[in-house]
Amino acid sequence: MSELTAKELFDKLSYKKKNVFEASSPEQIKKIYDYSVGYMKYLDDAKTEREAADTTVAMLEANGYTEYKFGDKLSPRDKRYFNQKGKSIFAFRVGSKNIEEDGIKILAAHIDAPRLDLKQVPLYEDSNMGFFKTHYYGGVKKYQWTAIPLALHGVIVKADGSTVKVVIGEDDSDPVFYINDLLPHLGARQSQEPLGTAISGETLNILVGGLPYADEEVSEKVKMTVLSLIYEKYGVVEEDFLSAELSVVPAFKARDIGFDRALIGAYGHDDRVCSYPAVTALLDTESESTVLVVLADKEEIGSVGLTGMQSDVLVDLIAKICEQLGADDIIVRSNSVCLSADVTAAYDPNFADVYEKRNSALVSCGTCMSKYTGARGKSGTSDASAELVGYVRRVFEENGVIWQTAELGKVDAGGGGTVAQYIAKHNIETVDIGVPVISMHAPYEVVSKADVYSTYTAFCAFIK
Ligand code: MN
Ligand code: MN
Description:
Blueprint: H1 6-13, H2 26-45, H3 49-62, E1 66-67, E2 79-84, E3 88-93, H4 99-102, E4 104-110, E5 115-126, E6 129-137, E7 150-157, E8 163-168, E9 178-179, H5 195-198, E10 206-209, H6 221-234, E11 244-250, E12 255-257, E13 263-266, H7 269-284, E14 290-296, H8 313-325, H9 329-334, E15 337-341, E16 344-345, E17 367-370, E18 374-375, H10 386-398, E19 403-405, E20 415-416, H11 420-424, E21 429-434, E22 436-437, E23 445-448, H12 449-463
Parallel strand pairs: 1-2, 4-14, 4-15, 15-21, 16-22, 17-19
Antiparallel strand pairs: 2-3, 3-14, 5-6, 5-11, 6-10, 7-8, 7-11, 9-10, 12-13, 13-23, 17-21, 18-20
This protein binds manganese (II) ion (2 copies).
The site of one manganese (II) ion has 3 residues, from loops.
């Protein structure tokens, strides 16, 4: 070490994050920008978990993956996907290596995002306007959802059992929907209220109509117009809303942000910005290992239910794969490794007081590994081992992946959880990794193209 200058020695000994753009050649930067084009298309096609599942299935089938049902035969090199109720996808490639020794390489992201769901009896009219009642889904800042264009997505199951798909507000010729807010002229008291209570859940009513039905006999004329238009288009009556899942999401399309187009603005980066790289990494790599990409639902409300990661379906699927390969699933799980692929909060200089900068994710410094998540003293995290972080770090180093590490904000400022703990509990080594997001859970979130691409390269390195 003696021949080094003090500055060289300091550079050798100290840790510093790297900016992916700065570390990339013009050709690599072009790749980063090109990759974002496919991602932005995926964002526009996949605004709900059902649409993300359908879009993913189409990508998988175009690449030779076929649907797997429990009980199907499996052999090495099979490319299959398991569709859990149309809301959660498990895509897997059976490896040629001994699965008991090699385990399964798992990438687990989620495809649900915060939004407003329609109540089961949503429609009413008041003061010449028609509205839908909603119940918000996931952690939303309610005031952000007023006075922006909204789209309606979902399914309606009719009395005869047939299902109607609904997407209104995405085509430029479609109408959009809207939540009223108070004018500032009358907002003196509202503006004194805390942000969290200024707009209440029961005021998130969707404006859906205003034309009275031309008939003297009908008492609720705007409601009648709306019902008649829905009936005309979908053959649906009001009672059919009882068996429907309809969600209201921002009508915005994904767009480049900034003069240099370095960033992407979109609804639902959390967590499509990890699910898209996970699926494309699966499709773009070859490997001897068995690889499983999990796209889960219900993460935003606690990973509950049939399609959330707390469901037994993950262990059931692993057991069935092992059964077909003549392997013991307990041994396989104990030798498996999972990257829990979810977003983290990007350091935002506009809100510096809630971050601890040394341990925050910086925009454009690459995909971000979080050894632990949780809140109030790491509560709710699976806290990956130093050995696992060391293993993933070596994989990234060998493959030239630029990455960073972070935790979500200051120790006592708050926190968050992911699906990691629900996978780790099955004796599968799991660590969190994903893209840093600005304005997470807002109707329009922002990420850096460099971090999206870095996440893709990280996933390719991990599964190959
Ligand atoms: Mn997430
Ligand atoms: Mn989230």
